[in-house]
Prior knowledge:
Number of domains of chain A: 2
CATH architecture of the largest domain in chain A: 2-Layer Sandwich
Strand content of chain A: 25-35%
Largest interface: A-B, 54 and 55 residues
Number of helices of chain A: 13
Oligomer: homodimer
Distance between the termini of chain A: 16 Å
CATH topology of the largest domain in chain A: BirA Bifunctional Protein, domain 2
Structural class of chain A: alpha+beta
CATH superfamily of the largest domain in chain A: Bira Bifunctional Protein, Domain 2
Helix content of chain A: 25-40%
CATH class of the largest domain in chain A: Alpha Beta
Shape of chain A: globular
Amino acid sequence: MRLSRYFLPVLKETPREAQIISHRYMLQAGMIKQASAGIYSWLPLGFKVLRKLENIVHEEQVRAGHIPMLMPTLQSADLWRESGRYDGYGEEMLRMKDRHGRDMLFSPTAEEMFTDVFRSHVSSYKDLPLTLYQIQWKFRDEVRPRFGVMRGREFLMKDGYNFDLTKEDALHAYNRHLVSYLRTYERMGLQAIPMRADSGPIGGDYTHEFLVLADTGESEVFYDSAVTDIKMGQRDIDFDDVAQCQAVMEEFTSLYARTDETHVPDEFAKVPEANKRTARGIEVGQIFYFGTTYSEPLGAVVDDGRGGQVPVHMGSHGIGVSRLLGAIIEASHDDKGIIWPEGVTPFHVGILNMRTGDDACDAASEDIYAKITAAGLEPLYDDRDERAGTKFGTMDMIGLPWRITVGPRGVKNGVVELTSRRTGESEELSPEVAIERIVEIYKGIA
Amino acid sequence: MRLSRYFLPVLKETPREAQIISHRYMLQAGMIKQASAGIYSWLPLGFKVLRKLENIVHEEQVRAGHIPMLMPTLQSADLWRESGRYDGYGEEMLRMKDRHGRDMLFSPTAEEMFTDVFRSHVSSYKDLPLTLYQIQWKFRDEVRPRFGVMRGREFLMKDGYNFDLTKEDALHAYNRHLVSYLRTYERMGLQAIPMRADSGPIGGDYTHEFLVLADTGESEVFYDSAVTDIKMGQRDIDFDDVAQCQAVMEEFTSLYARTDETHVPDEFAKVPEANKRTARGIEVGQIFYFGTTYSEPLGAVVDDGRGGQVPVHMGSHGIGVSRLLGAIIEASHDDKGIIWPEGVTPFHVGILNMRTGDDACDAASEDIYAKITAAGLEPLYDDRDERAGTKFGTMDMIGLPWRITVGPRGVKNGVVELTSRRTGESEELSPEVAIERIVEIYKGIA
């Protein structure tokens, strides 16, 4: 993309309404614009990252054997009355009447809808196990929306639901989700620690939240620092392998790691003194096993193969996709702007032409642009007729992890500058070598 | 995908509520399930096609130089009061109050929102031309929603908005959209004829609708049959080339083609007798140029480079993405089910194992499945332990354009059967040649 033809409204001033860094940078980098309280328009750069996150979530869910579908945002109140949650949900549920006076609501979550699809179409244990999920906009009418997309009212969420014959099978689904979530976050450049959580209004005994450590997190967290040394890495996962998924789950959850809601000081006391950590964390996902809490009232039963009808064992599993943008920025930035991890960056590399209009600089920049594009990557080429300072400022703010700077002196000597946004380190390289490096960096990522 | 692990609830009975074939087949093929009147859940197969259509629209919009972003579904009433449309929009607009009593609405379209983004961030002619678009769920509270996704209340729409300095530039944007829409429909296997239309509540002098001919169409259409001979084909389009886009527009719109709303019998009388056609059509898109209708009341002005401030010239351009599923099925089916065009089929080929459990059939089917998957295509492998009749019925109903049938006698002789869903013609081929054929068919499509 040529910046002269893109829509990237980078703000010069610091937005006063932003209390945390991710909110401020998303506004400044021209990623979002507030439409009304807690509701955002996703400007092109923000939408591009959002779409990348969405695709990563889809890929990892499908890899785990989960099946994508899509529920409507607006739902009839009837199903929620059947499950008993309509009256109890409170003011966070946005309710409305349609032109015929029927009670509708904007889905804050979708246990009822998925259970209804299940009970309408599945009647035999032979069709199990089954995990269905969606990535869809939700609405929760927070009293005081704040922190930009971190605590918005309209937000994009992946929510998945497993349907199993037995508790044992459902716990495998639970573990499978835990493993797939760990993979998902790592691909986004995030370390999200699973922590024992409180099940809250969804109910159930088994639940873990995934927390990204960040000073601006809403939760206080207590953990054994050894937990941050465990990585998924490139391990080969067979999501049908019950023992393997169980082992990964245990590996990642056996060390002490809890939020303030479930913290047990006596347990924490047993953590080796040098490993004790107290910090703040941002919740970016949660998994639940809740058994027959919804299948019983909604009549989601199957023939168990032995002449009986049994309610299925369920769980639900969520990732806050739009919130992840905020979490990634909180975890990865400096005082000049965002620093995107390679897996989620909106453009793979910035090309900064230091002297637009100079024939040699233009030609060298165009050539690099064409070659990187031909390699299947997306460069952002700053071809604007702007001062170098403005161009550097834009690149630093929007946070592309790599930058190729094309200047008149370098071009004369046959070199350009390849700079890492994260370390700030630069190297003078021939354009060909710089391009090769970029291609190499994104091998297996882009 | 193995069918035994997919969620494809094909209905045996004919759903009584469906009045038209696309609605009936989408229900029967397990693509959608009605959630409430005019609101559908997209089951996995339906979602898969929807996502493909969405991707084609994105690709063609980006190719034309248009920039994707995303607006929230819920909007504050304030902007709509500013443009003067809030009170006039009528009962199709779904209105609600949030917990603080503020007036909100579910976006039925987004002229106001895009104009607001524009006026907030653009102030100079130097940033023009600019076309922004989104693909987002909309809601229009139809009195009598019907025909499944063809006239639903919650629907997925691509809506784009161009911002230009002059009327001339805006008319180039108009032509560019017309050309990109023609490409889009052709990739979906649809012939959509641009027809002079009525501008309705959006206003403006220039507008074309795109209509797909189908007996169940809601509009009566009158046209010169020669218009159906014109194709975009593989022509090389430069979307910056004003003359080329103008020429394509003229080529596609100079022959008589109108809906009942704009039909002029005296003009139609001049069409050569042998070419006169009256038929029915389904509207799948519309483009508008409406000048300064929104930019003036909303103050979307730019510095014109000569010291003046002028309101920008705008147009809006829509494609009904979810409705397109219905239109494609109306245009492409037979009495056994759907027939997907190759460009939009949910799976590229079905593999039908005639005797699941037979070692030779299983091994041959698995091998074909693995090789087609390795070629980057998505087969749907019917590995269920079902009767052959059931398997053929499912494949015919869900309409994959190609099927490979693996039977015990053929396997013994080293052949499988490759069948075209459209023609019903079958060929006995070695598995290797059948796979090569499939790969060849999808070259440049998948």
